[in-house]
Amino acid sequence: MKIHTALAILAFGVGTASAQTAAPAVKVDGGKLEIKSIQTPQFQASNVGEKRWRPKDWMEVDFSFQIKLPQSAGGRNGALDSLAVTYYIALNAQTKDGKYEVIKGAFNYVDIPASEDCHALAYVSPATLRRLLQKDGFTPSDIKAWGYEVTVGGQRIEGNSSMGKAPWWEKTESFSMNEGVMLAKTETPFGILWGDYDVSAKKQ
Q1: Structural domain boundaries of the chain?
Q2: Residues 6+ apart with CB under 8 A from 71
Q3: CA distance 28 to 111
Q4: From CA 77, how far away is CA 82, in angstroms rounded?
Q5: CA 163 → CA 71, 94, 113, distances in Å?
Q6: Which pLDDT does position 46 carry in this prediction?
Q7: pTM for this one?
Q8: Closest CA to 137 of 33, 40, 42, 32
């Protein structure tokens, strides 16, 4: 009996140590999502001719955050190779069966500097917004709720939403999920703008 008890305690200790070892050392302090309407930027080039067009309204998602690393990973002077962020944006629009339209976007952000104010950007095109909202134009009043989750090494280490800490998007029976429609900045006309304001993104 004592042998079995000792083995059980040992197994528990090993399992606990493994879980502690696997836990990511990085800490992420995430703010609220800033979601706004932004028009297509206009550029001029001298040798390609002119085309008439009207700038339209995009959705811009701006996630502000800061990471902290242990000294063994560089501390304040270090950088994290990557972290994953999944966004959930519920719209004030419903399907024919009464489900709210939700935009889901997942991105890997790379080379994140520690102890600095960082920004991650994501976008939804005017064409996608028109399809989901069934109208021209987009304003922040078209947003019903937002949320996000941050993972490092597959483990969730941060999250927030406009509806509190509870992940409202898990109530899948109430929503129509639209995946693959949220774009990284490099996939949009905004790709060349704002220098080092935002961290680099790779779409999942």
Answers
A1: 24-41+54-203
A2: none
A3: 14
A4: 16
A5: 35, 19, 29
A6: 83
A7: 0.85
A8: 40
151 vs 186: CA distance, rounded Å: 22
Q: Hey, what amino acid is at 82? A: S
What are the pLDDT digits (tens) for 53-111?
Answer: 899 999 999 999 999 999 998 999 999 999 999 999 999 999 999 999 999 999 999 99
Q: Bridge-partner residues for 118, per DSSP?
A: 65
Other C-beta atoms within 10 Å of 36: how many? 14
Give the pLDDT confidence score for residue 140 in this predicted structure: 94
C-alpha distances (whole Å) from 3 to each of 6, 7, 13, 15, 194 are 5, 6, 15, 18, 65
d(CA 148, CA 150): 7
pLDDT one-digit tens code per residue, 130-187 = 999 999 999 999 999 999 999 999 999 999 999 987 899 999 999 999 999 999 999 9
Half-sphere exposure of 143 (CA within 13 A, CB side): 20
DSSP state string for 110-123: EEEETTS-EEEEEE
Q: Determine the pLDDT at residue 9.
A: 39
- φ and ψ of 169, to 5 deg: -70, -10
CA distances in angstroms from 98 to 76, 92, 113, 174, 191, listed in the order given = 48, 11, 43, 8, 36
